[in-house]
């Protein structure tokens, strides 16, 4: 125990002396939490709309008005031909084209049926899908308005109607930031903790100081603990900064308890840092360690459900996410912050993350050789 | 010239010796593409839902069977009472609950009005919106069938055309992004680290007192990463076309030319970073904070630039990857030609020149 | 227990061998080191000195052979060995980003010294090296010679039975080397056995006994005086040159 104390003192002296590092540890989470929620915005609004109105009727104008009066769409301009409008799509000046055919109004009233053509730039499938479903519901509303206008009230009522009411729990204002910010907290804690630990042991290798430790009576577990605890504390500091920033800036605080968040984070960090130390014991140079770290970080984040929901993935990918500690923390922190889940609801998550912590740290102790 | 070749050889030995890094350099784009192509999708699948049918009549059975046969949803049968919805949400067991009112069929046929309540877990607002839309449209279809028995007038039919990506594949937007990111990672980050490493270990001095011209030293560091970048571009394109089924609608030659220009731009950025950073660690930090984050966040790779606040949109203009990603999308997916990407090419050329000029200025001071 | 004659032997090596693949770095070396002596381990670069030393201090596993250090077997008791030895590596290995005082505290601590011992001994060390005024300076700011002296003092800080020094004076000026050897003598005088590798032949003269390693094998082992007698050559430098010339391994 006494040896461990000295190892910890030394690690902190080194970390605190590195001014650049300290500044990064404090500044990176703040800057990221200020910028990212604005950049990482999948809230669909202001979709740029080009209109080709070949009818110039009252109804065609009304329909366009219906589109532009929502927050979802922003008029980019009227064009005389579809070809011109397509050019707007090519130049990324517009995402969606509405083409209203000649005799739109006449056909609707006289023939009882008319058509509209909508073309979407679908390179980004998600935004295209959402903008199409918004247009659909706008057109459906418009259609209903027309029917009400033309049909006798009696006839409308004689049609059986299923009324669908929907309510959105846990995030009634459908604020995308509530979804993304808790995920970003996990991202930050993971990024800072993992990168720093991964480089750490390799740096001692490159500097040759590790040899001096290897010939000392220091035990393997003491060494690993001495490396783990400082970054564990830093991880929790980063988490705290992130909590403060998201409360001050976005008014986000957990419906559940901070205690549950910190308890989970504490165990999660042990697992994550154990993995970082494992990588660090294997790497030969700092450059290599950075690279391996970058590789795993990328996979962890892509398969962590930060942006794309895990349930949408095919089975093999879902299986991979079950091997990814990051996915459990992202899930858990969203459940705690947005839904107020407690330890009882998170029992499985806790169990698995404890298992990860044990496995990774055993690996780290095992792969660190005092002897070649 | 002979000296230059032997120097380049030496750099290749360095890179080939470190098998792990090389494996990651060449494997990273493959893994990333496969994940984006096959795993990461925002298309809803297997969403777990629960249905409470308080009426249990013919109509509700029909609607439920329609929902059940939809591939998007999986019905949870373990939850028996609406009281349990909140707990099920909290445990993450379900995403959506549908509740039919009592006497559904009776109300619908005699009062012409019946109610369905949908409760969504809106933790992920987009997912929730999409799910509610799906359910609504299933119910809407059912209603249309009811109407059809007594035909409804004044109908607007909408025809949708999904341009460039009719199947709404996720890979279409991620492949150009992966190209922009990988090339920058290898060209800028690796180059800068390897130049700084040479300076840090003191071998740079040895090289500089040799009869080699300083620029040859830098050139010999840059060329191997140039080669690796090209190998990566080829792998990415082969995978995109043959595994992910993406088209290259425009001219391959133009795509190749633009890619070379972008690699060149990234390499000069790498040289510039190496003139700023003192240590490998500093070079890494500058590369990751200064390059990777802006690229991932502001290039349009992960998030649509159009959704961002104005200030971020303005900042995004200085990110070279943004322009390259536009070029790749234009050529590969939209099939546009030289004149359509001319502006972007000019911007990239200009950026390259600026990076080179600053590095030359700093290079002389430093060495 | 050990017989009286063996009692004073602190390092006993028999047929110790280390192979890396096809390459035999250390080939069946055998020797003994007595308590309190300064044992010089000479050889050209690549002769296998550092490899042999790393096996003795328990950070490299031998391929075959036996060795006993400070009374402990290198195979089964490496941790006990580590408690009883000090080591100063070729690559300078104090923490450059810590101050002198912080380094002293750290190394004292991980060798399990208690607070009073650390306090007392670090006072003694700072006085001896005349480092009191600069104890809060970063190690990275010291000249190389000072760093070496500090590194040596820390290697013997926990009063080990044996101290292993791997080319401790490479790259320092002659005056500092002289001062460094004064520290070695002092340690030896206090009963610490010194095992030192070097390729400076003038330093060999300071040792009680030296061994000369060529191509992984020990080609000569005796006191400097006896060696000169045996070879009929009056400088160690020339003896070394004679032996090393036959080397097939060239760095």
Automatic annotation (TrEMBL), chain A:
It is a multi-pass membrane protein. The chain crosses the membrane at residues 20-40, 178-202, 228-253, 259-279, 291-310, 349-369. Keywords: Cell membrane, Membrane, Transmembrane, Transmembrane helix, Transport. It comes from the Bacteria. GO terms for cellular component: plasma membrane. Pfam families: ABC2_membrane_3 (PF12698). The keyword Magnesium does not apply. Its main location: membrane. Residues 146-371 form the ABC transmembrane type-2 domain. Belongs to the ABC-2 integral membrane protein family. This is ABC transporter permease. It comes from Stygiobacter electus. The lineage of its organism: Bacteria, Pseudomonadati, Ignavibacteriota, Ignavibacteria, Ignavibacteriales.
From TrEMBL, chain B:
It is found in: Cell membrane. Pfam families: ABC2_membrane_3. The keyword Transferase does not apply. GO terms for molecular function: ABC-type transporter activity. InterPro entries: ABC-2_transporter_component, ABC2_TM, ABC2_TM_bact-type, ABC_2_transport. This is Transport permease protein. Belongs to the ABC-2 integral membrane protein family. It is a multi-pass membrane protein. GO terms for cellular component: ATP-binding cassette (ABC) transporter complex. The chain crosses the membrane at residues 20-40, 171-196, 222-245, 252-276, 282-302, 345-363. The keyword Flavoprotein does not apply. Keywords: Cell membrane, Membrane, Transmembrane, Transmembrane helix, Transport. It comes from Stygiobacter electus. Residues 132-366 form the ABC transmembrane type-2 domain. The lineage of its organism: Bacteria, Pseudomonadati, Ignavibacteriota, Ignavibacteria, Ignavibacteriales.
TrEMBL record, chain C:
Keywords: ATP-binding, Nucleotide-binding. It comes from the Bacteria. It holds the Pfam family ABC_tran. Residues 11-240 form the ABC transporter domain. One of its GO terms (molecular function) is ATP binding. This is ABC transporter ATP-binding protein. It comes from Stygiobacter electus.
């Amino acid at each position: 125990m006494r040896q461990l104390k000295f190892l910890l003192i030394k690690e902190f002296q080194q970390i605190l002396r590195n001014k650049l590092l300290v500044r990064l540890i404090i500044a990176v989470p703040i800057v990221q939490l200020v910028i990212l929620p604005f950049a990482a915005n999948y809230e669909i609004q202001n979709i740029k709309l080009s209109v080709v109105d070949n009818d110039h009727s009252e109804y065609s104008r009304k329909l366009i008005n219906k589109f532009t009066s929502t927050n979802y769409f922003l008029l980019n301009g009227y064009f005389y031909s579809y070809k011109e409008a397509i050019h707007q799509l090519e130049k990324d000046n517009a995402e969606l084209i509405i083409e209203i055919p000649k005799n739109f109004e006449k056909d609707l009233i006289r023939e009882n049926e008319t058509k509209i053509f909508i073309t979407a730039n679908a390179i980004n499938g998600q935004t295209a899908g959402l903008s199409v479903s918004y247009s659909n519901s706008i057109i459906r509303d418009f259609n209903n308005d027309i029917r009400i206008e033309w049909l006798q009230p009696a006839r409308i009522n004689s049609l059986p109607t299923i009324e669908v009411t929907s309510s959105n729990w846990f995030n009634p204002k459908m604020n995308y930031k509530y979804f993304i910010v808790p995920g970003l907290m996990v991202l930050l804690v993971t990024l800072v903790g993992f990168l720093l630990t991964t480089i750490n042991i390799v740096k001692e290798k490159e500097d040759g100081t590790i040899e001096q430790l290897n010939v000392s009576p220091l035990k393997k577990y003491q060494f690993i603990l001495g490396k783990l605890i400082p970054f564990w504390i830093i991880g929790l500091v980063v988490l705290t900064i992130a909590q403060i920033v998201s409360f001050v800036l976005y008014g986000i605080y957990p419906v559940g308890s901070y205690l549950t968040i910190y308890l989970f984070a504490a165990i999660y960090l042990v697992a994550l840092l154990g993995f970082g130390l494992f990588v660090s014991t294997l790497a030969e140079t700092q450059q290599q360690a950075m690279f391996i770290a970058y590789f795993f970080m990328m996979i962890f984040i892509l398969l962590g459900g930060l942006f794309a929901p895990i349930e949408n993935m095919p089975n093999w990918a879902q299986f991979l996410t079950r091997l990814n500690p990051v996915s459990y923390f992202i899930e858990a922190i969203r459940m705690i912050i947005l839904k107020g889940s407690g330890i009882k609801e998170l029992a499985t998550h806790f169990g698995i993350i404890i298992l990860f912590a044990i496995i990774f740290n055993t690996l780290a102790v095992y792969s660190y050789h005092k002897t070649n | 010239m002979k000296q230059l070749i032997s120097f380049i050889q030496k750099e290749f030995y360095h890179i080939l010796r470190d098998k792990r890094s090389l494996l990651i350099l060449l494997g990273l784009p493959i893994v990333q593409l496969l994940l984006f192509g096959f795993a990461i999708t925002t298309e809803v699948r297997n969403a777990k839902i629960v249905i409470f049918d308080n009426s249990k009549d013919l109509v509700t059975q029909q609607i439920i069977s329609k929902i059940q046969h939809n591939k998007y949803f999986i019905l949870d049968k373990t939850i028996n009472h609406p009281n349990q919805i909140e707990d099920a949400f909290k445990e993450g067991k379900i995403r959506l609950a549908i509740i039919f009112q009592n006497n559904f069929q009776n109300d619908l046929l005699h009062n012409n009005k019946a109610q369905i309540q949908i409760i969504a877990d809106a933790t992920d607002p987009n997912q929730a919106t999409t799910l509610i839309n799906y359910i609504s449209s299933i119910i809407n279809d059912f209603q249309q069938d009811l109407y059809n028995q007594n035909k409804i007038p004044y109908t607007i039919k909408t025809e949708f055309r999904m341009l460039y990506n009719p199947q709404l594949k996720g890979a279409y937007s991620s492949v150009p992004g992966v190209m922009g990111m990988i090339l920058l990672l290898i060209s800028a980050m690796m180059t800068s680290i390897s130049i700084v490493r040479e300076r840090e270990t003191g071998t740079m001095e040895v090289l500089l007192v040799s009869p080699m011209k300083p620029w040859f030293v830098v050139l010999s560091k840059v060329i191997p990463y140039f080669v690796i970048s090209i190998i990566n571009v080829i792998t990415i394109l082969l995978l995109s076309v043959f595994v992910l089924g993406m088209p290259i609608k425009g001219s391959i030659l133009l795509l190749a030319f633009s890619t070379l220009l972008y690699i060149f731009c990234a390499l000069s950025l790498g040289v510039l970073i190496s003139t700023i950073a003192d240590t490998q660690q500093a070079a890494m930090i500058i590369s990751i904070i200064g390059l990777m984050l802006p690229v991932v966040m502001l290039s349009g790779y992960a998030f649509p630039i159009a959704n961002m606040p104005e200030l971020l949109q303005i900042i995004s203009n200085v990110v070279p990857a943004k322009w390259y990603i536009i070029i790749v999308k234009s050529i590969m997916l939209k099939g546009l030609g030289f004149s359509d990407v001319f502006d972007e090419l000019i911007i990239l050329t200009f950026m390259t020149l600026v990076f080179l000029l600053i590095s030359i200025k700093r290079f002389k001071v430093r060495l | 227990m050990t017989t009286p004659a063996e009692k004073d032997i602190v390092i006993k090596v028999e047929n110790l061998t280390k192979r890396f693949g096809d390459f035999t770095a250390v080939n069946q070396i055998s020797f003994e080191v007595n308590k309190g002596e300064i044992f010089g381990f000479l050889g050209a670069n690549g002769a296998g000195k550092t490899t042999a030393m790393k096996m003795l201090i328990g950070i490299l596993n031998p391929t075959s052979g036996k060795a006993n250090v400070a009374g402990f077997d290198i195979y089964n008791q490496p941790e006990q060995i580590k408690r009883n030895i000090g080591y100063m590596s070729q690559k300078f290995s104090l923490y450059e980003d810590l101050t002198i005082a912080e380094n002293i505290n750290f190394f004292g601590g991980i060798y399990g010294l208690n607070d009073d011992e650390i306090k007392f001994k670090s006072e003694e060390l700072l006085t001896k090296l005349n480092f009191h005024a600069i104890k809060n300076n970063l190690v990275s700011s010291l000249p190389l010679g000072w760093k070496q002296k500090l590194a040596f003092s820390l290697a013997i800080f926990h009063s080990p039975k044996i101290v292993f020094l791997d080319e401790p004076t490479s790259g320092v000026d002659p005056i500092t080397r002289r001062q460094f050897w004064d520290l070695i003598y002092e340690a030896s005088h206090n009963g610490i056995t010194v095992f030192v590798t070097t390729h400076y032949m003038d330093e060999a003269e300071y040792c009680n006994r030296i061994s000369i390693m060529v191509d992984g094998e020990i080609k000569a082992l005796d006191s400097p005086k006896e060696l000169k007698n045996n070879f009929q050559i009056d400088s160690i430098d020339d003896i070394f040159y004679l032996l090393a010339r036959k080397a097939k391994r060239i760095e």
